[in-house]
Amino acid sequence: MNEPVFLKRTIAKHTLHSRHLGEDRKLRIYLPPGYNELLSYPVVYCQDGEEFFNFGRIATLAGQLILEEDVEPFIIVGVEVNVKTRTAEYAPFGDRFDAYLACFAEEILPYIEENYPVRRTPDERIIAGDSLGGSVSLHIALRYPHLFTRILSLSGAFYPETQAWIEDETDLSRLNLNMVVGLQETEYQTDTGLYDFVEMNRLTRDLLLERGATVDYREKDGKHLWGFWQNELRESLLYFLNA
């Protein structure tokens, strides 16, 4: 029995040396069906790249959207992270946070654009993440407004430090966010404390809206797990890719 065509995919793996982080960083790049380097493609950049591919099954989902739902072919870039240094890189109070933001915007993005035919305008890029990955994606868009304006957040860990960053902004009308959070995430234990992710996401949504951002926001039954996010990823991607 032949496997569905959307399960056949091309995933390239690269290792980039980051001067900012002082170490190598692994990347996974999904190339869509019919990939042609003479064309140009929208691009989705994912924090926690290994998890987006393994647990989010984003490559299979991309194939389905492209082949069955007539979504324009797109490239996915998964940026892998070491679990031991994840909070240090993704949280705004982490001691590797500034270096990671610089690595992402000043090293990873130019490397991808040099090697793949991705489109180079903010409205053709999506930056995505779960939990702290959603938070750091927003921070990258805030620090590098000329690079990113479209943010996909799955149960974003928008700690008070992130909300303070937003409060310091006056005009965020350039931003377009798709946010989802699970209703069973009201008491989630992280490595820095116990948080109510529902309240955290509601407050962040309101702060963004007050500053003119476009926010597509939804709350669904779900826990702070990939089992929930995998089911929501399709709707979140379609929000941007069908626009």
TrEMBL record:
One Pfam family hit: Esterase
Gene3D superfamilies per UniProt: alpha/beta hydrolase (3.40.50.1820)
Name of the protein in question: Esterase family protein
Native species: Paenibacillus spiritus
